[in-house]
Amino acid sequence: MRNALGLLKQRRFLPLFTTQFLGAFNDNLFKTSMVLFATYAIFNDPRMEANFNALATGIAIIPFFLLSALAGQLADSHDKARIIRLVKSAEIGIMALGAAGLMVARSGHSTIGLGLMLGAVLCLGVHSTFFGPIKYAILPQHLPPCDVLGGTGLVEAGTYLAILMGTITAGFMTDHIERAAIAVLAIAVIGWFAGRQVPPAPREGPPLVLNYNPFTASWRLISATMHIPRLFLAICAISFFWTIGAVLIVIFPPLVKNVLTADERVASFVIAVFSIGVAIGSVVINTMLKGRISARYAPASVIAMGIFVLIFSVLVRTWTPAAPGHFYDWAGFLAQPRAWPVLGTLMMIAITGGMFVVPLYAFLTTTVEKDQTARTVAANNVVNSGAMTIGSIAVIGITMAGVTPEDLLFLVAGMCLVSAWIAQKLHRACDDDAETCLPVIRK
């Protein structure tokens, strides 16, 4: 990425990158520890496992739907660095709640422990809701225009590398869940220190009158954003992408356990392959575009993603399961003739997904005025969360009807085609007519 790696040496970017990295690592360490512990140590029913994962995903999304409008208003009307410090302070208390849930569940009180952990997931959703608009909206404020795409790509790549590390770490801590409880608390404290180093990012533009009603604020926010064609198309494309992501998140742990018949360490690494791939895709697309914000490659990227999803579905259908009552460890998994094709296909799904979504986020922050970027990202988060909630609920209903995870992959492939159609409309609307993508000042 053009000049992007050099940003890691600068105080205007490094503290934000570090704070985001630690937050994503910690969030994923806790959630993956919870999901793997519940999947392998509490539940013993594929449908219950999928439903619990869907419930956890839905709970994490609810705050985005209800509070994103307020989060965007606050970010555009206050110093973003100050909000980061408040959010990171809250993370310490949230992780204390989550750590307590892990320990209670480990002691045998699974119902109470799961309740505490799901409460922590809900609070982490609130945490991410208020931090999410800032991590993108602060970039045009701290970086020159030529570095915004590179900075966005670094944030995305760093986020998914953090998810990778958190996922792998969780897999190795499943047998000693108390270590995960200690780790999430310690990382929250380190993240708090990192957040205090982010340079000030004061309000730009006229002061805002805050609307604290989540429903009317969300409606006004979406109305003020979605009537602009390029933003409407970008947000719709991103929403379809994250709906696909929600479906994959829900079905993957049960699929790895019950179809690939692998243990939790293999499960954590298989899930982490997505993080590696999206990080690679983020770097690749920024290199291909050479710093220019464009949806040129988005349609082809997501179509390729759908093709790899279909290939993956075929591979898992012909997988040789382990003996009844046993799971493959690392050696046993990699000894299977289709192990490397499975991992390679997963990697390509993630790489093409990263190539698709990163330029779309850059559209949100560079084609509006700087005092509107957080609200634009917040509007995107509201629509994304609604789409992901629908996806999670749909998975529960489809799973209850007896549809298997490998069959659900066909739904994912079909959704990729819809995303490609929307991305192609965005490409034609913006890349073929640059004037339509100039910032628009909204009264």
Annotate the secondary structure layout.
Elements (H helix, E strand, L loop, with lengths): L13 H29 L3 H32 L2 H27 L3 H28 L1 H4 L2 H29 L3 H19 L18 H13 L2 H30 L5 H26 L8 H20 L12 H5 L4 H28 L6 H28 L4 H27 L12
Helix pairs in contact: 1-4, 1-6, 1-7, 2-4, 2-8, 2-9, 2-14, 3-4, 3-7, 4-14, 6-10, 6-13, 8-14, 9-10, 9-13, 9-14, 9-15, 10-13, 11-13, 11-15, 13-14
Describe it for me?
The protein contains 15 helices and no strands. It has helices at 14-42, 46-77, 80-106, 110-137, 139-142, 145-173, 177-195, 214-226, 229-258, 264-289, 298-317, 330-334, 339-366, 373-400, 405-431. Mean pLDDT is 81; it is low at 434-443. Helices cover 78% and strands 0% of the residues. By secondary structure, it is mainly α.
List the keywords.
disordered C terminus; 0% strand; 443 residues; 15 helices; mainly alpha
Mean pLDDT: 81
Return the string of H and E elements.
HHHHHHHHHHHHHHH
Contiguous uncertain segments of 5+ residues:
434-443
Share of residues in strands: under 5%
Number of helices: 15
Which structural class do the helices and strands define? mainly alpha
Largest sheet: none
| Cα Rg | 21 Å
Any idea what the shape is? globular
Separation, N- and C-terminal Cα atoms? 35 Å
Tell me roughly what share of residues is in helical segments: over 70%
